[in-house]
Design brief:
12 strands, 12 helices, binds magnesium ion, Isopropylmalate Dehydrogenase, alpha/beta, two-stranded antiparallel ribbon, binds 3-isopropylmalic acid, 40% helix
Length: 367
């Protein structure tokens, strides 16, 4: 059987820097564990625009459809701010999500004990936090039609459309319940059924799907209250099920609970391919961070944890994923800190590449 294939799309800003560290980890698995991947690399975002005039070339899109997993760094940066909307770096990312039909976006927010003091919330509110946001990723206001800026009388009107079919809600909801079955068996569905018809339908479908999972406890919350509850008492949640736009916002909020946006991985999964693996893309939740690009300050852990999710969800290597996550926990509890994780006086930050090396050393020590 051929090796599992991975397409690496480092993208822009700190994307290439953090991806270099992921490559060290991938190489370690090859050398020390004899787990080989066929790794190829290509361009996305501004980097693709610079070469091809589009944020994702058709050939790259085709490659992404063929591999077992895509690993993406980050897209965007100030150099591309004035580009036409249709070729902005973000369009490359959205095209990947849409054309690969990656409807289930898993955004775990786990607070490593060593980092509980870095959260903007008090330690006892976040210590031990382990929640999972299931964000619908291929529909809703991100893609709904009509959309655009139109002339209306003597002024312009900007239009986006929140649109969800029952089947779109249903498949996202199923993913959330499946996750909950392997966790603490609670799903909290968040929408705005008090003001949006799409929210009413969302609630109905989530309730219907719940009947197939009698062991899982389903609750509903308006998304604004959900945001408030996330910062008031985040540990009340297990799996949060929500739409594309609310999920975008709530997941950034959840990320900060853990101490740093530089810690949060994500997996975007679609339907199973012929080989039984789901279509999949893995990426850190953080962006391209132009303010620190090229300075060796970026935290590679979110991207390395995204690779751990690939091991778990694409390659059925849960034990190796555990090994990698434990190595990261060890590195942090030993006191290694990139600049985003500093707070204590007298601790010198280590660089992006030193953090990558520390993770590899901890992996090696785990054997
Ligand atoms: C995210 C990002 C993207 C989104 C941007 C870069 C298009 O914020 O993945 O959360 O809005 O989905
Ligand atoms: Mg976002």
């Amino acid at each position: 059987m051929s090796n599992p294939s991975i397409l690496i799309l480092p993208g822009d800003g700190i994307g290439p820097e953090v991806m270099t560290e992921v490559r060290k980890v991938i190489n370690w698995f090859g050398e020390a564990r004899d787990i080989q991947f066929d790794v190829s690399e290509d361009l996305v975002g501004g980097a693709a625009y610079d070469k091809h005039g589009v944020p994702l070339a058709d050939e790259t899109m085709a490659k992404a459809q063929e591999v077992d997993a895509v690993l993406l760094g980050a897209v965007g940066g100030p150099a591309y701010d004035d580009l036409d909307f249709s070729v902005k770096p973000e369009r490359g990312l959205l095209r990947l999500r849409k054309e690969m039909d990656l409807y289930a976006n898993l955004r775990p927010a786990q607070c490593f004990d060593a980092l509980a003091d870095f959260s903007s919330l008090k330690r006892d509110i976040v210590a031990g936090l382990d929640i999972m946001i299931l964000r619908e990723l291929t529909s809703g206001v991100y893609f709904g039609e009509p959309r655009g800026i139109f002339e209306e009388g003597n002024e312009r009107v900007g239009i986006n459309t929140q649109r969800y079919t029952e089947s779109e809600i249903e498949r996202a909801a199923r993913s959330a319940f499946e996750l909950a079955m392997r966790r603490n068996k609670k799903v909290c569905s968040m929408e705005k059924a008090n003001v949006m018809e799409s929210g009413i339908l969302w609630r109905e479908v989530a309730t219907r799907v719940a009947k197939d999972y009698p062991e899982v406890e389903l609750s509903h919350m308006y998304a604004d209250n959900g945001a408030m509850q996330l910062v008031r008492a985040p540990k009340q949640f297990d799996v949060i099920l929500t739409d594309n736009l609310f999920g975008d916002i709530l997941s950034d909020c959840a990320a900060m609970l853990t101490g740093s946006l530089g810690m949060l991985p994500s997996a975007s999964l679609g339907a199973p391919m012929a080989n039984g693996r789901p279509k999949a893309m893995y990426e850190p939740v953080h962006g391209s961070a132009p303010d620190i690009t090229g300075q060796g300050k970026a935290n590679p852990i979110a991207c390395i944890l995204s690779f751990a999710m690939a091991l778990r969800y694409s390659f059925d290597m849960g034990t190796e994923a555990d090994r990698l996550e434990k190595a990261i926990e060890k590195v942090l509890s030993d006191g290694a800190r990139t600049a985003d994780l500093l707070g204590e006086d007298g601790v010198d930050p280590i660089s992006t590449s030193e953090m990558g090396d520390a993770v590899v050393a901890a992996l090696q020590a785990s054997l």
